[in-house]
Amino acid sequence: MATSLFPLEQDLSCPVCFEIFNDPVILSCSHSFCRTCLQQSWEEKIERECPVCRCRSSEDHLPTNLALRSACESFLQQKRERELDPLRCSLHSERLHLFCEKDEKLVCAKCVSQEHQNHSFCSITKAAIPRKGKLKTHLTRLETKLTIFQKIKDISEQEAAHIKSQAQNTETQIQEEFEKLHQFLREEEEATIAALKEEEEEKSQRMKKKIEELDKQIMEISSRVTELNNILKNDALIVQDFKKASERAQYTVPDPQLESGALIDVAKHLGNLSHRVWKEMKYLCPYFPVVLDPNTASPYLSISADFSSFSNSAEKYQLPDNPERMSAYRSVLGSEGFSSGTHSWAVEVGNSEDWIVGVAEESVSRKKTCGAVPENGFCCIWRDGNNIRAGLSVSTSETLMTKPTIKRICVTLKCQEGLVTFSNPDNDTTLHTFAHKFTKKVYPYFNNGSMNSLKVLSQSNNDNKSLTQNTSYSFISRYFFGTST
């Protein structure tokens, strides 16, 4: 049975520095010292004498005390091993080999006889079995949480990179848009870019802070996972550190969520940009009653620079899967939602034979497919081959036209009345009307299943008649620059 090493440590300590001998030398008087300690002691004195008994020494060569050096090295090695051994009793220096069921701690043989009399004991392995199961459950939950945090971090990093790309592309488009106008619009251009920069900085900083926080939480969870994995490899450590390990495994920070509105509101900066600027100057400009929101667009869609039309892309764009995005459909929403008033817009469907046009509530499913019918939050009509239909329910649709030649669809939303009317603007005939009370904000909805593009038609400020963007810009060019586009 081991005893305290304190008396032995005193015997192996240098009488000058009081530390364990380092390269011990022996004098003729049989006293030993560290070689460095003795040399420093002699440097301060005229005569060489033993620092303990004061006996004079005439030795030029100080012989190493080999036996003492070996004993010191063995002692230090043993001491290091004891300090690194977590299963050795700190009071008695004996191995901890029993578990006290009353005090729930590991004990050695001396502990049993001195401090735990009449207590119940069991083996370390037996005590570890139930605790190991609980720790494994905690570990599984912790690993699941780590996966969630990592996934959110990955998407957040994509969003952060996309914000930068959006800012650069938006700035370029803003500059191109303003280049079409003249020098007297430069101040408006600078103000618009400043607003973009401000939003970019705000949202980039917010995303940076979020990612930094996710990094900290991921590091913390990873640290706990590593700790538990290390503990689970050793039954004794499971028992000894069970309470601490259980507490470390209880990571109660709520799972992170992706926040809506994280991306730059590109539509706010670029949507109807020309109209907003030219309206202040009381001149005509193209106005689109609906501006497509690229943050909601499917990765398989290509949105035009003015956010008025879209078409299918030959390849999938690398876009972050933010909460607003219509990932499950080849669809896009308008940038502005409506909860009051009457709103109308016309869509040029052209020769496309696979499209859906209408409105969708803000809460519609965006990540999983469902039918574009009222019970799912949609009021839409669609073309499927040679028929135009209206979706009444999941299992019911009404055929509105067969072999249609219609090229444009007008949608009129009356929020208070809960009416959505679809008509042919060329002959002013009604195709279908939905009567549906919306409980959430309603957005224009567009879906395109063909390679032909769908386009929201612009409107004139004065008479509200549809006209194309080219016509408007031709008028602007002739009026201000004396040229024709």
Describe the structure.
This protein is an alpha+beta fold. Helices cover 38% and strands 19% of the residues. It contains eleven helices and 20 strands. It has helices at 6-11, 35-43, 66-84, 109-114, 124-179, 186-232, 235-240, 242-249, 266-270, 273-280, 469-481; strands at residues 24-26, 32-34, 98-100, 105-107, 121-123, 301-303, 309-312, 331-333, 342-348, 354-361, 378-384, 387-391, 397-402, 408-414, 419-424, 429-435, 442-448, 454-456, 458-459, 466-467. Strands 6-7-18-9-14-15-16 form a seven-stranded antiparallel beta sheet, with no helix packed on it. Strands 8-17-10-11-12-13 form a six-stranded antiparallel beta sheet, with no helix packed on it. The longest helix has 56 residues, at 124-179. The termini are far apart. The model is unreliable at 1-5 and 461-485 (pLDDT under 50).
